[in-house]
Design a protein that fits this description.
Layout: H1 13-64, E1 74-75, E2 78-79, H2 82-87, E3 123-127, E4 134-137, E5 139-142, E6 176-180, E7 185-186, H3 192-196, E8 248-253, E9 258-262
Parallel strand pairs: 5-7
Antiparallel strand pairs: 1-2, 3-4, 5-6, 6-8, 8-9
Amino acid sequence: MRPRRHSIAGFTLIELLVVIAIIAILAAILMPVLQKANLRALQTESLNNVKQLAMAGVTYQNDFHGSIGYAGDTGSSGSVCWLETIGEICSQVYSVRMCPCAPTVNPNNAYGTTFYGDAAHCWNWGNAQNIALTNEGSYTLNGWLYDKNSNPSIPVTDTPAGSYFQGKIMHPAETPFFCDGIWPDAWPLNETSAYLDQPYSAGSLANLYDPSISASGMARVLIARHGSMPATSAPQNAKVRGTLIPGYINIGFVDGHAALTPLNNLWQYYWSGNSLPQNHP
């Protein structure tokens, strides 16, 4: 007897195209959701980093009753960065010094040189005194807290010459310690007139980020590192004055908590003892 032949049913071209179209639609729906989830995970990791840095800074000041050390101070091997100063007693700061959104240097910058970071890249303070490490990081210390008088647990003394903190911390929950930024330190000013007097885009607060920035104030932390898009796509030409500024940064505060903060709100904090919270320009 002859074996019975079985016909093998297959997809028609129309059916195959329908399946491909459905997969494409599902991918288009899921990709933004997955990207948003990934960005949120990076934000959370960065938030934990600045919280640990803030706690390490407070611990250092409490233990030593003194200054973290201004980045321009010099030691036996040259300039000292807060990363080395705090790292001497709290080595884990080296493991949290990089924001996951800005973990590497800009490939256009030569390794070992000193340069600013940006939303997607870390800064480089140059070679560290410890040759096994480098002074690279993605976070910025509030320069007004260099002075030992910023320590909230000790009485205020006469401010020594060369110190930068203006008065004692009165609002620890609203005083930033570490945050996302493009340089090891910054001295943000709340007063609009004083802020605009600093060099920024040829003397004006025109755009969100300028790669040639030299100002030491709010501009160093005014980066759209976190938000609805990857840091590599962060806006750099968004206007600042009189507009809703896009993006967020993570801030670790003196009281130990941390928060994801809209750039519009940066002028509302007590950056120094003399700060007067205001709305953004």
